[in-house]
Amino acid sequence: ECYDQAPDFTTTLLSGQSITLSELRGEIVLLIFFSHTCPDCRMLLDELQGLINSEVQMPSILAVGRDATEEELLVYRSKHGYSIPMTSDASRSIFNLYATTYVPRVYLIDSGGHIVKMFIEYESHYLDELIEEAI
Fold first, then answer.
1. Is the separation of the CB atoms in 68 and 42 below 8 Å?
2. Are 107 and 98 in contact (CB under 8 A)?
3. N or C: which end of the chain has fewer CB within 10 A?
4. Dist. CA 7–CA 114, nearest whole Å
C-alpha cells in the first residue's frame, strides 16, 4: 500500500472540460493509464464501462490515454461505446509523473489526494476490489 501524495496535473478531457487532479480532493478518484492499442487495457475499460452501465456506485474516474492523440481517443471511445472521462497524454507528460512502463495501470486516490492502492496490468478481480474499497 502506498500513501504518497498523487502527483498533481491539469489536463483537458475529450469533452473539452479542463480538470486538475488536486481540485478533486474530497472525492475518491480512480486514475487509469491505458493505451488504445493494448488488449488488456480494452478489457479493463470494457469492465469499467459495464460497471458504469449497471449503475454501481462509482468513485470519480479519469482515464489517461498514454501515447494517443485526442483524435485517436475520440475514435476509440466512440468505437467501443465508452462514457468514461478520458484525456489524451500523447507526450506522456502525465504518465511520466507516475511511471515509466506498463499499462493498464490503475491508482486509487483517497479523498485527501493520497495513492492508497495501485494495480499494474489487468486481472478481472481487481477492479471490483478497488470499487469496493472506494465506496
1. no
2. yes
3. N
4. 9
- Contact status, residue 115 vs residue 28, Cβ threshold 8 Å: no
Give the position of cell 495501470. 105
Report how far residue 73's alpha carbon sits from residue 55's, in angstroms, rounded to the nearest whole number: 24
**Residue 70: Cβ-neighbour burial (10 angstroms; 0-12, 13-18, 19+):** middle
Amino acid at 130: L
What is the band of 2 on the pLDDT scale with cuts at 50, 70, 90? low
Say what the pTM is: 0.92
Per DSSP, helices labelled H in 54-123 are: 70-80, 95-98
Separate counts of helices (H) and strands (E) for the chain: 4, 7
**Distance, CA of 114 to CA of 107 (rounded, Å):** 10
How do residues 49-73 score in pLDDT, each as one tens digit?
Answer: 998 898 878 889 999 999 999 999 9
Quick one: CA torsion of 7, 130, 13, 91, rounded to 10 degrees? 50
